[in-house]
Amino acid sequence: MYQKILPAGSEILISESTIDQAINDLAAELNSDYADKEVAFLTIMNGGMIFASALSTRLNIDMEMDYLQLSRYGKSKTGGQLVWKYQPEINLKNRHVILCDDIYDEGHTLEAAHNWCMKQGAQSTSSVVLVLKEHDRTYADYKPDYVALNIPDHYIFGYGMDLEEKLRQLPAIYYLPDA
Ligand SMILES: O=P(O)(O)OC[C@H]1O[C@H](OP(=O)(O)OP(=O)(O)O)[C@H](O)[C@@H]1O
Ligand SMILES: Nc1nc2[nH]cnc2c(=O)[nH]1
Description:
Residues 19-164 form the Phosphoribosyltransferase domain. This protein has helices at residues 16-33, 49-56, 108-119; strands at 11-14, 39-45, 63-71, 83-86, 96-104, 124-133, 146-151, 156-157, 173-175. It is of the alpha/beta class.
């Protein structure tokens, strides 16, 4: 169905059904860990939007939802300066924050978001990512608390992740083996 918009040579890295099952497993873990907590569920835009939508509809948790926006890649495949584009107004004081993002790559985005939430007075802040990319480059000191899937070192797109700001809407995760 997506042949018309997929770049030539694209291959599937993670299928829709694998993603769906991984999100179910993650939701079960969060439903247990946050059963008695008052939660602020914060999506990191733009990349986190599709994963956060799918995950949040499976959460049986007392929570408010909001988002923040941080960016360091833009149209590039390599990370640059981290730019805050939107900080939420929701009160995080004494709340248990769950940060939800699509990918942990070098970790600078989640580290900055985590530090900011703690500065706002959150009682705890944890992070949930759909994929963690394994590579030899330097990671930030911060590591995500919940990871659905580990992936090899490819630039990936689909399921919220962009290729030059497009193709976020793809329901599976793709890569270009020759890129
Ligand atoms: O672990 P890191 O190396 O910090 O990279 C991860 C971040 O990179 C992407 O965001 P991007 O800056 O591309 O903005 P976007 O969400 O608008 O695509 C992705 O959505 C993560 O938030
Ligand atoms: N779309 C996309 N964004 C990223 N941000 C950090 N790594 C990636 C990646 O592999 N794909």
